[in-house]
Write a structure and sequence with these properties.
The chain is an alpha+beta fold. The protein has 9 helices and 4 strands. The protein starts with a helix and ends in a 5-residue tail after the last strand.
């Protein structure tokens, strides 16, 4: 896995840690429920970045007897845990804090402190978002796709998980700002509590989307259609190939793909099939280094 994955995660971790401290300080000074909910959100995000970093480390373990295809999918497992924490801790606690504040509203003191912290937080979150977005756009077969489609197509949790989280964070920051402003403008703390509820809903929604992406990859998502089409083209262009069934692919990690092919070869001299298989494997690996394991099954031969 590239160092870019580590950069995206470490950048997001540092940003969220700084933001969390600032938000809790702001909540303590002003008594804002929305600011407290945002502080909880940032703490959860910080923990999530650490889990993603742990997932990268564990996914790099070498294949062994119990895991002959390696541990690449462990990265997807920890991404699923991130989604669960985002839903339960981030969304649940923000929603709970909003309910408590609606039942026992407290006026916000010194709202300008919140505005400063929220403004700085937007800068940090936007920077983290742009780093991940830049990495997303550098991915293969992403060019020309819209943001939503690109996120759904990405196989790298260090990209799509960060973008989902940062998008939720930015949405939460704008909601928190609106809650603080309306509470101060109308001298009614109910708006602040309502903002916490909305932040909880945002986090729960993003957690569901992130869990769905992780689920798809854990159960064996195929490689990009463009990659599959290009592999088919390589097979069909070989002089020894009569026909080839659609390639079967599965991601074991962002840059680790398994490829299985069922090929019907022409009948030739002894050793021609073996040479053809070696030639095809070399061409495929040269074109797509991320394809780590290739299995080619030769069907019945014809003249």
């Amino acid at each position: 896995m590239s160092s870019g994955s580590n950069i995206s995660i470490i950048g997001a971790l540092i940003a969220n840690l700084v933001i969390a401290v600032s938000k809790f300080a702001g909540a303590a000074v002003t008594g804002s429920s929305a600011m407290l909910a945002e502080g909880i959100h940032s703490v959860v995000d910080t923990g999530n970045q650490w889990l993603l970093f742990l997932g990268i480390k564990k996914s790099r373990k070498e294949a062994d007897r119990d895991h002959p295809f390696g541990h690449g999918k462990e990265f997807y497992f920890w991404t699923l845990i991130v989604a669960i924490l985002l839903f339960s801790l981030g969304g649940g606690m923000s929603f709970y804090e909003g309910v408590v504040h609606l039942k026992h509203p407290e006026a916000i003191a010194k709202p300008f402190v919140n505005y400063i912290i929220l403004g700085v937080s937007v800068i940090f979150e936007s920077t983290s978002w742009l780093i991940a977005y830049s990495k997303l756009r550098k991915g293969k077969f992403i060019k020309g796709r819209g943001l939503i489609q690109a996120l759904h197509s990405s196989k790298d949790p260090s990209v799509f998980a960060i973008l989902y989280e940062d998008s939720a964070a930015l949405g939460g920051l704008f909601v928190a700002t609106a809650g603080v402003f309306l509470s101060s403008w109308y001298d009614n703390p109910v708006y602040d509590g309502a903002a916490s509820l909305v932040i909880g809903v945002i986090l729960a929604t993003v957690a569901f989307l992130l869990a769905n992406e992780s689920r798809s990859l854990l159960i064996g998502e195929s490689a990009y259609k463009n990659l599959v089409d290009d592999v088919t083209r390589i097979m069909e262009q070989d002089e020894m190939v009569l026909s080839c069934n659609p390639p079967l692919t599965m991601h074991f990690g962002p840059d680790e793909i398994l490829l299985a092919l069922e090929v019907e070869f022409k009948k030739g001299q002894p050793g021609d099939i073996e040479k053809a298989i070696e030639r095809l494997e070399e061409r495929i690996r040269d074109t797509f280094p991320e394809i780590k394991k290739i299995f080619i099954e030769a069907r019945s031969l014809k003249k």
